[in-house]
Amino acid sequence: MARLVQDGLITPEEASVHPHRNVLTAAMGVEPSAGDFLETPMPLEAGDILLMCTDGLHGLVSDQEMLATAGTLDPAEACKELVRMAKERGGFDNITLQILKIV
């Protein structure tokens, strides 16, 4: 769904209720073609935050909530808080995430 939103074909609101919102279209793994990555590295700067998560989190917690939480708490506490939020909202799937803050 992120690709459809990025390409302007659907809105984020439409993506959140789309019947195929949980269909896997890319993955990280051992196969070179498994991921969907930029060919040119993206430079990181102090203050940047990287958050990688499964659909068990992003299906229940909005991007804005993830950004606000990751931006105000240290990474370990932000992970705990985001998992808590997802569980509170149903936690229907596994909830896995990693946060990295560039200093």
What does this protein structure show overall?
With 103 residues, this protein is of the alpha+beta class. The protein has two domains: 1-37, no CATH class; 42-103, no CATH class. Helices cover 38% and strands 10% of the residues. It has helices at 2-6, 12-17, 55-58, 63-72, 75-88; strands spanning 49-53, 97-101. The protein has a two-stranded antiparallel ribbon. Helix 4 runs antiparallel to helix 5. The longest helix is centred in the last third of the chain and has 14 residues, at 75-88. The chain is globular and about 35 Å long. It starts with a helix and ends with a strand.
Please give a quick description of this structure:
This protein is of the alpha+beta class. The chain folds into 2 domains: 1-37, no CATH class; 42-103, no CATH class. Helices cover 38% and strands 10% of the residues.
Key structural traits:
103 residues, alpha+beta, 10% strand
Secondary structure elements and their pairing?
Blueprint lengths: L1 H5 L5 H6 L31 E5 L1 H4 L4 H10 L2 H14 L8 E5 L2
Antiparallel strand pairs: 1-2
Helix pairs in contact: 4-5
Radius of gyration: 15 Å
Helix content: 25-40%
Q: Treating each run of at least 4 consecutive H or I residues as one helix, how many helices?
A: 5
| Shape by Cα distribution | globular
Chain-averaged pLDDT: 85
The arrangement of helices and strands along the chain is: HHEHHHE
